[in-house]
Design brief:
The chain has ten helices and 13 strands. By secondary structure, the chain is α/β, with parallel strands linked by helices. Strands 3, 4, 5, 6, 7, 10, 11, 12 and 13 form a nine-stranded mixed beta sheet that branches. Strand 1 and strand 2 form a beta hairpin. Helix 1 crosses helix 2 and helix 5 packs across helix 9. The protein is elongated, with a radius of gyration of 24 Å.
């Protein structure tokens, strides 16, 4: 449908918009200014878009569409580099056997999909799955023992690339016959003296600390509680009447359990892929892009605007799946 569009069009127009003029862009691209003008005009005419307006002094001002073009063109050209890097690596015999990791709190279907996408791309390159806690997997990725891992946040390291895949709302898990189950949604105050099951603090200390902050901000004091080291244990404790849990919305529930949303907050569980910035397999970025496309989920609107964000778009203080009793609102990655 768009066979007339070539990579050079995106490269040319991106440089024009970034430099704010044809002359400078032509110099940096080592081509002629008339050639740039022709290519820019043809692209805009074929696509029926206006990417910029010229001022009286000859400067280029991007239109709203032009601003979007800058971001999308960068993405397209970056993807081109990733694809070629992946092909070169495959031609040179890499990767052979790969190791992908996942934490117990990650949606299992997401990890299976990631492995399946790799098998689709490289059917002769077997995957060796491994499981562990987020801090443990992060260390193994940094040490080169694991090629990539899907984890729940928060997690950061200067040598790690962290790519958020999705954000899921945190909901309250309780027995169907619990008195609070009669409500359509629960105010946060209902967690007081009822939230008494959590993911073990030592499994993800940063997440536990963030959970404590969120509860304190909501005016909830966590009293005595039971710890669980796996999502299935969390649900078992709930069924046995030891209290309420906070889990990822959409989690498969055992018989007799149900969930209720929290009425006055939008806490989210953030799931991300991590891999080494410099030493990663060249096929991994391609797999991450394909996974994001196949697992795209709606993000709660209120969770988007309430968390401070760093320049890379991630929330500054995400919360890992540490609750039970992924640049979002309160990030605490709760039990999956």
């Amino acid at each position: 449908m768009y066979d007339w569009a070539e990579f050079r069009h995106f490269l040319y127009l991106l440089k024009i918009l970034e430099t704010g003029g044809f002359r400078v862009a032509a110099e940096e691209l080592h081509t002629s200014q008339p050639n740039l003008s022709v290519q820019a005009r043809r692209f805009q005419e074929n696509a029926s878009v206006n990417l910029f307006r010229k001022t009286k002094d000859g400067r280029i001002n991007p239109t709203e569409t032009g601003l979007a073009f800058i971001s999308l063109a960068r993405l397209l050209l970056e993807l081109r580099e990733e694809v070629i890097d992946a092909l070169v690596a495959i031609e040179r015999g890499k990767p052979g056997l790969v190791r992908f990791g996942s934490t117990p709190l990650v949606d299992p279907s997401l990890f299976r999909n990631f492995c399946a996408l790799h098998n689709e791309l490289l059917p002769r390159s077997p995957v060796r799955p491994t499981h562990g806690d987020a801090p443990q997997l992060a260390k193994e990725v940094l040490d080169g023992l694991v090629d990539a891992a899907i984890v729940t946040l928060p997690l950061s390291h200067p040598d790690l690339h962290v790519e958020v895949l999705r954000r899921d709302r945190i909901v309250v898990c309780l027995c169907k016959d619990h008195p609070l189950a009669a409500k359509g949604a629960l105010p946060v105050s209902d967690l007081q003296d009822n939230l008494s099951i959590i993911y073990h603090p030592q499994r993800h200390p940063d997440a536990h600390a963030r959970l404590m902050e969120l509860l304190a901000e909501a005016g909830v004091t966590l009293g005595e509680y039971s710890c669980a080291s796996h999502p299935s244990e969390m649900q078992t404790l709930v069924k046995e009447g030891h209290g309420l849990a906070l889990i990822r919305e959409g989690t498969s529930l055992e018989e007799g359990l149900t969930t209720r949303r929290l009425a006055d907050v939008d806490w989210t569980v953030d799931t991300a892929v991590i891999y080494h910035k410099q030493g990663h397999l060249k096929t991994v970025p391609i797999l991450v892009r394909k996974l994001k496309l196949s697992s795209r989920k709606e993000i709660p609107k209120s969770s988007i605007s309430t968390v401070p964000r760093s320049p890379n778009g991630l929330a500054k203080r995400p919360v890992q799946a540490v609750i039970v009793s992924q640049d979002a609102l309160s990030r605490y990655n709760g039990s999956h």
